[in-house]
Amino acid sequence: MRRPDARRAVFLGLFVVAVGAFAAIVWRTGYNQALDQLARRGQADLTLAADRLTGQLQLYQQLAVLIADHPSLDGDDTAAKRAFLLQSADKTAALDVVLVDEEGRVEVSATGSAPANLAGTEYFRRALHGALGEAHGTNSATGQRAYYFAAPRFDDRGQVIGALVVVANIEKVEAEWRGARPVVFFTDRSGEVFITNRSELLYWRRAPEGVGLIPPRGPAPRFETATTGPHEIWHENWSPYVPQVALHLSRELPRIGMRAEALIDVSAAQRIAWLQAAVVAAVCLAFGAILFVVTERRRTLALANTKLEGRVAERTAELSKANAALRREVAERSAAEAALKKAQDDLVQAGKLSALGQMSAGISHELNQPLMAIQQYAENGALFLERGKSGPAAQNLSRIGSMARRMARIIRNLRAFARQESEPVSRVDLVKVVDSALELSEARLRSDAVHVDWDRPCAPVWVTGGEVRLCQVVVNLIGNAVDAMAAHDVRRLDIGIRRDGARVELEVRDTGPGIEEPEKMFDPFYSTKIVGDSEGMGLGLSISYGLVQSFGGVIRGRNHPGGGAVMIVELVAADADAAPSSEVA
């Protein structure tokens, strides 16, 4: 008996090793896929940060070019020149604006902090050749980081007679995105970190090996690098606000002579990979356990049959008794299999009921305002009929029919959302969508005494999306804002649309208490409303988040410095000649 037991032990050991190896392969594959997705999102964030920096610096560059030949800088009135330069610096938040002659001597400084002579600077020498000079460094007078733009000044014959230098305050430039995620820093040609959204990394330098960073003084913290597929992973312990294990991304910015780099936290990718590996290992072990039990059962039955066949001649009575016992065991096994099948069917039914419960919760939340509108139109229609006004009554009945058709479309869109399906998107007029949402919410806005400030554009604003689903998102944002302002005396709702290149932003601001937990606001079933309230199931923002993502957009929220919450829906701008949406709100 020891030899079969040893074989089974070896087989089980090999099976466990095989499952472990397979789980490791699944972990590696899942981790690489998660890193690929993380890298794509990180590259987009890095591009956005780089574009934001270059765009902000370009404002100071344009300022230098525009005022270099301004008439106010001609003549001998130094006080007038200084006043003009100081006015320009104050309006743009520049550190200084300096007028320099062709010898490099400073004629006028807006703040008086410029050195007496700039002849030795690289950006001034480039301006003397008729080109725009650029450089960065630390301002010797204020100790602040600065970026310099030197625009040449020409006389009537086209000869360079000096330069106008605009000194940009880097701290002002990076103030808007300091502390944001991910970690982003910009290194110059010498490898020094000159701009970053993590102040603790400022002035760190590229390590002698060319990878990683070291502080300007003191011992270098722990740092290691590894390669996973095409990705570079950094292991470090630089700061509590810098991820210890991060995906390193970089992008050259020759326009400003710097290199943009980002560190993306990979903990989420590791969690996904571990979860996938654990699920695969659990399934394989469960399958192996079932196979082992079945094999052991069959082996036991085979041994019993062999023993019964050897004793059939001598012990017929015992064999009959054993056969009877075997039949009872088979019956019990059949009953157990039937019970197992019933339990599996019950589990499937429970899963269906759970899905129906979630769908019902979503439908009840999204259909509440159309139902309120139908009730209002029905009551108004009845009053008009009592007064003999058939015309307005017919209009109310027509609106009730329109609301019923809209409810059917909402149910269809919610069902498609639950199944992760989406209808084709096309061109939609965002102004018309907001008008429709305000019309649907008009009764509630009036009953709650909410003042709406709708900065309505004169022309259509075309975006990519679905008209009905986008209207659902706007109605939900309006409803949430009205709920938030219920306990406040001042109830004002500000709605505006602005376009920035290929993106269009819809902003909805209320005067409520603000967002208590911004990081949880899009989680399903998260709500700050009273438990048991029919409007407080916490699915509205979660569903809206999925709908906006299906259009290729994003939705985000923040607290306004003046009080209240601001919800921003960012959508992709559509061409004016694109096909309009077939959906009707």
From TrEMBL:
Compartments (UniProt record): Cell inner membrane
Protein name stated in the entry: C4-dicarboxylate transport sensor protein DctB
MF terms (GO), sorted A to Z: ATP binding; phosphorelay sensor kinase activity
Predominant location: membrane
Species this chain originates from: Sediminimonas qiaohouensis
Function: Member of the two-component regulatory system DctB/DctD involved in the transport of C4-dicarboxylates. DctB functions as a membrane-associated protein kinase that phosphorylates DctD in response to environmental signals.
Taxonomic lineage of the native organism: Bacteria, Pseudomonadati, Pseudomonadota, Alphaproteobacteria, Rhodobacterales
GO CC annotation: plasma membrane
EC number: 2.7.13.3
Reactions catalysed, as given in the entry: ATP + protein L-histidine = ADP + protein N-phospho-L-histidine
Keyword set, alphabetical order: ATP-binding, Cell inner membrane, Cell membrane, Kinase, Membrane, Nucleotide-binding, Phosphoprotein, Transferase, Transmembrane, Transmembrane helix, Two-component regulatory system
Domain Histidine kinase: 362-575
InterPro entries listed in its UniProt record: HATPase_C_sf (IPR036890), HATPase_dom (IPR003594), His_kinase_dom (IPR005467), HisK_dim/P_dom (IPR003661), HisK_dim/P_sf (IPR036097), Sig_transdc_His_kin-like_C (IPR004358), Sig_transdc_His_kinase_DctB (IPR017055)
Transmembrane segments: 273-294
Top EC class for this record: transferase
Membrane topology annotation: Multi-pass membrane protein
